């Protein structure tokens, strides 16, 4: 179980889910599960001022057995009209075929179920599941990169019939379905549920309807759903604002012209509507920016409820920072099957324990692998049994233990999710939806220094089979996605901060001082020479807001966790002046991401510089910069100067030369273990390559220092060597591949087109050319690097390489986590007390219990824990929330250490 969705499922069945109501004895287990709302991110309903609803498959729940069949039949009729053979009339719709989130490959006509990265889990051509050679003929790496010109994603429930029809005819098509609505037709295809919208207004919140349907259709559907609840009350009176023809996701970008609709004639008024939005009126089109201004909403005070993962959830989250509630009607069936097959999951977990136990005593010197084929076959058999319990394509959320693309989007973008929006009725409007803490693998397992597997024996008991086995924390590799080392044919390495670890803080102090010297040459005041580097301040993964001059620690979605202006931490009104929603969308023109260890001195220098200019009596502090007389210096300009100075010092200045002159002072040397690692890789008949952005002269000096004491030239440890790679450009168009003369360091004329020679050095190139020349294919490469974007994200997304992220800060993070684990345990206890205080309330409850004392205690614990790491806190979290950097580690690094 490795996704938050799977964790939510398993927790709900054992009554341990803090994120939703606990088990009530008046309901049986399945009924209780269907009432649940699952939580990915915490928020409090009392902070919501606007409840927004989509209509189709959200307020209007369609009866899938009849509605999908109608859609399928009408699509066939349309295809026959445009020239398809009459024989397609014989197609019979199978509701157990499709799941949401499939990709349709328009080139080869295949329906694909993929994981979050494009790795193919299931491939169906028509109704033929492609395996092995057939699959490799289309996708040599069992991988496809998302390209909207080639891939169509089946995001919505509307597309289930389309997926099945694609399988029937294996041909790309576009279809429009015309539905003719009568009272009888609506009853046949739409569930009539007791939607009590008045409770939202009773809690002083506003509600709006935002649908892509036109007014004619919306009026018929909503009248059917709501007009009979209260006599003489029109459905429009339940909403404060109504927008039809929204054209989501376009609504969350430039949108269309906002017009008022005449509810008697259904016609649209001439011109754009510019006045306030009126109650009981209907509007068409518009865009989210205009809409938000007219209703006076601010990002996180909106909870939007919809079923379309892209059009409703992702876009509203990324563009406006709305809280999001995803409707997943399939969830009821998924929960039911999960419950029924729970014993199979238990068996699979025991087999995985047994597998881990068989391998745990081995290291890289081990030659003979124990026979694990029998256990693996049993695991595969269980996975197949579980998958076949769902549908033709298996579960919407997983294949075996691998998360699907759809499931990863739910986890990332849906704050809460449930099978129906009506489950809100079972929660009070002051309810605190509390997510389980977002922990890295190293935090989840940091105290598991011993491993004692439990193996199921015939009598059903669990017995320990061995004495505990110790593994030192500093020697551990943490796993986000399963990886079998025997399948790796190429081990690739970055050099800086990967093979060559620079000593901290000595190296950062050197870089910091050299950048200051460069800034003095640019005319900055002499006083900056007094700046002294403080290693306790910076952490990587911060964003710099060039507009306001703030360093920001953000979560995966741009929600601001920490904001520092110089050395002043902004809170309350100061923070809201710059960021009314405590949110910032990533925009490269405004935001610079400080992701690397090389950025640490830069981060501290930015803080020093902003602090100097904003506190100096010589300068007047303004919102976007400082002024002195007629001179204005923007925070963006200050950053650009620092950035150019840093680049100069690294590329043309003295940093490399001073490092080379005193390598004992600045570079960690561990030549014996490094040589042993490379030797063992070669003994296991794998190839090893070096792929670094550093030039040959610097690389030669550093690698000689690291390895030449072993009695061999450093180049002999690598099969292929590429310098001047210019990652991340290397994973796109790259540069010209040239051979380097290792005696002179000069690059040879022209582009190198022949095979790559062992122990020879090459410069530039790109990943496509490089992969062809060495004969590698995607997943048979494990690339090891420290740069989350240049090394890990790009190699994963563009080449499907397996990825190993090096995080030197991890040792200190683990030590602090271990020392302060008791604080986190206290937070968990307080969270449980908080959940218990709210458990017996539903949406009709008016009086919120007093929870301020508990929330204050939680905040105190979070602050104490954060301060244990440094001034800006942990690299991986702020309180129980993951940082942007941590979320990228989880998404893209298969393993890390």
Number of strands: 41
Give the C-level CATH assignment of the domain at 477-501 and 667-805: Alpha Beta
Query: What distance lies between the first and last C-alpha atoms, to the nearest angstrom?
Result: 21 Å
CATH superfamily of the domain at 477-501 and 667-805: HAD superfamily/HAD-like
User: How big a fraction of the residues is strand?
Assistant: 15-25%
Please state the second-level CATH architecture of the domain at 477-501 and 667-805. 3-Layer(aba) Sandwich
Region (Disordered): 1-24
Family: Belongs to the 5'(3')-deoxyribonucleotidase family.
Protein name: Cytosolic purine 5-nucleotidase isoform X4
Keywords: Hydrolase, Magnesium, Metal-binding
At a glance:
This is Cytosolic purine 5-nucleotidase isoform X4. 35% of the residues lie in helices and 16% in strands.
How would you describe what is shown here?
The chain is an alpha/beta fold. Among the domains are: 39-61 and 191-329, Rossmann fold, CATH 3.40.50.1000; 64-183, no CATH class; 477-501 and 667-805, 3-Layer(aba) Sandwich (Rossmann fold); 506-661, no CATH class. 35% of the residues lie in helices and 16% in strands. The chain is built from 29 helices and 41 strands. It has a 9-stranded mixed β-sheet, covered by helices on one side. The chain has a 9-stranded mixed β-sheet with strand order 23-41-38-37-24-33-34-36-35. A 5-stranded antiparallel β-sheet has the order 7-6-5-4-8, covered by helices on one side. A hairpin with a 2-residue loop joins β31 and β32. α12 (342-359) packs antiparallel against α13 (373-388) and α27 (821-838) runs antiparallel to α28. The longest helix has 18 residues, at 64-81. The protein is globular.
